[in-house]
Design a protein that fits this description.
With 60 residues, this protein is mostly helical. Helix content is 55%, strand content 0%.
């Protein structure tokens, strides 16, 4: 099985934005995206939740 990081079941745009957030979570656009992810936490794929937790984000 391929790791979801390499072949995610979610849109590639989400994956790119996650990589940007992982690199620099202080940028205003990235902070806004992270806040949106927190608000929609229950709608995220469990692996997306895991990736976000791995960069220090917790559900609200």
């Amino acid at each position: 099985m391929i790791d979801p990081w390499w072949n995610p079941p979610w849109p590639i745009l989400w994956q790119r934005t996650y990589q940007q957030a992982r690199a620099d979570h202080r940028h205003p656009t990235t902070r806004h995206w992270l806040q949106n992810q927190q608000r929609g936490w229950l709608l995220l794929h469990p692996h997306q939740q895991h990736l976000l937790v791995s960069i220090g984000m917790t559900p609200t």
